[in-house]
Design a protein that fits this description.
mainly alpha; two-stranded antiparallel ribbon; 2 helices
C-alpha cells in the first residue's frame, strides 16, 4: 500500500479544518442563512462538501495507485 500524496492529504484536511477549527470564529446566532443560524448552516453545508473533497482526494491519488509497486512484486500495468 502506498502512502497518500500531499494533494490527497490536503483535500482530506479541508473539511476537517473547516468543521473543527473555524466554528469558533463565528459562534453566534446572527446572521441567518436560509432561516438557519450561520453556524448551523456552515456545519450542515460541510455534510455535502466533505464527500466532494474526499472524491477530489481520490482522483488526485488514483493515478498513483495504478502504477506498479516494486516493493510487493506488483507488475500491474495501467
Amino acid at each position: 500500500m502506498k502512502r497518500p500524496s500531499l494533494g490527497a492529504i490536503g483535500f482530506g484536511l479541508i473539511p476537517f479544518t473547516a468543521t473543527c477549527f473555524s466554528v469558533a470564529l463565528w459562534d453566534r446566532v446572527d446572521p441567518m442563512v436560509f432561516g438557519l443560524p450561520f453556524n448551523f448552516f456552515w456545519l450542515t453545508s460541510w455534510l455535502v462538501l466533505t464527500p466532494l473533497c474526499l472524491w477530489a482526494a481520490y482522483w488526485v491519488d488514483r493515478p498513483r495507485s495504478l502504477e506498479p509497486n516494486p516493493d510487493n512484486g506488483d507488475d500491474r500495468e495501467s
